[in-house]
Amino acid sequence: MHQSFKREVEISGKRKCCPAAQTSCTRLLSGSETDLMTELKFTLPSPMSTMVAHTGLLLCSLLLIVSATEKNEFTITCQTSTDCVLPCRFQSDGKGARIMWYKKKAVVSCTRYGNTSFVVGHNSPADKYRGRTGLFADQVLEGNATLVLKNVTPHDEGRYFCITMTAPRTDESGIIALVIEGPVREVDVEFSEKVVTCAAEGIYPAPTLTWSTDPPTDVQLLKSKTNTHKNKLGIYDIQSSLKLTTNIRGHTYICSVANDVNNKTVFLKHEDSVVAPGYGRVTIFCSLPYTALQSYNLTWMFGRSEAIALMRVVDENSQVEIQDQWRHYVAGNVSFLDGLQLQSLTPEHKGNYKCVVSTPEKTYITWTDVTIIEEPIQYTYIFIIIGLLILLCLSYVVFGCKIRRLNRVREESTEAIMNLRTKEENDIWGTNVADAANATGAADTAHAENAKEGDE
């Protein structure tokens, strides 16, 4: 604020601000405005005191308006969810200062530094600013009253000004018009068999979303449904679903999201599915327009959000980073022209792979579905082992049969031999018995003959 309280200000070209009005305005800014009417009534003679008091208030308001309009107004632009800096400088005596920031009539910040015994009263900031403001405390007594407004939202848009008070003077800054922007930062596009979905979040002011295809498609065939949501902070989210018809399958789908700040366009190309042999190699390529890109970011992804490799290209100089969990599966060099070469894939790697090429205004997404043949080498090993076990079992059975047959033949041979021996023994025994019987018979005959001769 200019030195309106130390010099006389011309009002309507003729009248000048009286000393009582000057004192009243100073007291108003120092926080004792509740006692202003009483003070004016006692400093001026009755019965004109009441009328002059009201005149003093009006004159004080005029002084504030005049001082504000005499200062330059400038604009500061900040993005949503960031910390915004509102500059303010003043002449400091290095002893003490009271710093007050306003947005229209609302108190944004009220702080004191050093010796402020000259200040009476205190104004508290509005609830929505509590805990969101700060000053550079070590620089205030050097004349820096710059305000830091934290985590700004669209509700913070408006006109701000700073009032600084020191023992010898009171100053007011020019008007700062704060503009809040929420640019379109990211646009997410997802693909399913029948629907393509496009979404963006954290945008201000309100965005618009449009669909198109390459090659171009009749607008009547682009059946989409778009929803826009504004949250309590005044920030917008937008989402749209495009229903796929047979007439636009195989096209490149283009989704554009824009507002007054910027625009972002995403190109989605769905390539033919790729069949990969288990533990073999497969190469996945990117589909981009013919225009050469000098600088861009390329990200290979698996599923919705799992990064495989990242490549940053600046003026044809590239830097590649492969994620640790994918180092075993990435073969060869990662590049735009050579694509992504993968090896040793298992059935768990079946799914969609995306090549995402990003520039400041455009994003190109190539979507490829990869199918893994579920006949990996370990299954072959299992089959070989099973075959060997079956062969071993068959060999055991055959060999067992042969052994049993040999045993049977051996037993039969042994039995035949035993039978033969038994027969021979029986024959020998029979012969001996017969001989013995014959001998016994002969002896009996001889004995009978001898007895007969004796009787005679």
Automatic annotation (TrEMBL):
InterPro entries: CD80_C2-set, Ig-like_dom, Ig_sub, Ig_V-set, T-cell_Activation_Regulation. It comes from the Eukaryota. The lineage of its organism: Eukaryota, Metazoa, Chordata, Craniata, Vertebrata. This is V-set domain-containing T-cell activation inhibitor 1-like. GO terms for cellular component: external side of plasma membrane. It comes from Solea senegalensis. Signal peptide: none annotated. Its main location: membrane. It is a single-pass type I membrane protein. GO terms for biological process: cell surface receptor signaling pathway; cellular response to lipopolysaccharide; immune response; negative regulation of T cell proliferation; positive regulation of T cell proliferation; T cell costimulation. Residues 47-162, 168-267, 282-366 form the Ig-like domain. Keywords: Cell membrane, Disulfide bond, Glycoprotein, Immunoglobulin domain, Membrane, Receptor, Signal, Transmembrane, Transmembrane helix. Pfam families: C2-set_2 (PF08205), V-set (PF07686). The chain crosses the membrane at residues 379-399. It is found in: Cell membrane.
